Amino acid sequence: MYNLGGQVALVTGTGGQNGIGRAIAIRLAREGADIILNDIAMCPYNEEDKEPHPWEGMSAVVKEIEDLGQQAIPIVADVADADQVNNMIIQALRKFGHIDILVNNAGAPAGSDRVPLVDLEEKDWDTVHRVNVKGTFLCCRAIARHMINRDQGGKIINISSLAGKRGVARYAAYCSSKFAVIGLTESLAKELAPHRINVNAICPGLVDTERVGHIASAIMPEDLSPAEQREQLVQQATSSVPFKRIAQGADVANMAAFLASSESDYLTGLAVTVAGGA
Fold first, then answer.
1. Is 2:31 a contact under the CB 8 Å cutoff?
2. What span, in angstroms and rounded, lies between the C-alpha atoms of 195 and 156?
3. What is the CATH number of the domain that holds 100?
4. Catalytic, out of 2, 45, 174, 266
5. Is residue 239, in this structure, part of any structural domain at all?
6. Looking at the domain assignment, is residue 137 inside a domain?
7. In a domain? residue 193
8. Which helix (DSSP H) or strand (DSSP E) does residue 134 occupy?
């Protein structure tokens, strides 16, 4: 549908098996782009769960992209560490020579921050903002410098959230971080437009990823099983969605592909809701 042949995309947060990052990376590769994959570890959820798991993380995504006839490299880096971000860009440019598209998808682990404000620990607030806001800022800054110097334009896509447009009880850290991402997006859109760099955000509702279970365990009744917690969270989320389902990674990836393409050349500063009408 969209011709991204000859372009290179950096997508952060791509190690999850059911994650938004993987879905976006695969979709952009289907459109002809070569992909730089990034995450905090090759297989972040394996390390988090500390149990054997058949999913191979970014290594598996590399294979999927290569099967589509495109090139891909995985780079382990903490997006909230400036030196690691700069080194990631150096590695990527050494391989591909240029970066045309940035998708800031990396997000802080969900769970211990989803509590009432009076119970929210400072460390949990800081963790959420460090990854969601600082990480987005650092990657935007590094890529903007490259795109400006290259003088060929570019696309920056920041993954915010429906919770970046509406406050949600017990989500103070998360909501405020995603509101910040939209503010950053709108500011950069105006700043980078003279360089033909489009900056837009995508605001999904609840997406069917590994994080759903983590969120459910934090906010649902403790006497429920993990499966029951997840089911109850999904039921609550879909009650306000006209299509009566939560989003799939592909729903977000479809919008990312459009915003990465020339079809969106006259669009910048948008925060596009992808939430089934919620």
1. yes
2. 12
3. 3.40.50.720
4. 174
5. no
6. yes
7. yes
8. none
How many residues does this entry show for the chain?
Answer: 278
Closest C-alpha among 207, 183, 161, 176 to residue 20: 207
pLDDT, tens only, 247-275: 999 999 999 999 999 999 999 999 999 99
Give the chain's radius of gyration (CA, Å): 18
Active-site annotation holds for 174: yes
Domain that holds residue 19: 8-207+247-274
Question: If you write DSSP's letter for every residue of 136-195 in order, what string do you get?
Answer: HHHHHHHHHHHHHHHTS-EEEEEE--GGGTS--TT-HHHHHHHHHHHHHHHHHHHHHGGG
Render 8-64 in DSSP notation, one character per residue.
EEEEES---TT-HHHHHHHHHHHTT-EEEEEESSSSHHHHHHTS--S--THHHHHHH
C-alpha distance from residue 223 to each of 129, 217, 227, 228 (Å): 30, 10, 12, 9
Can you give the pTM of this predicted structure?
Answer: 0.95
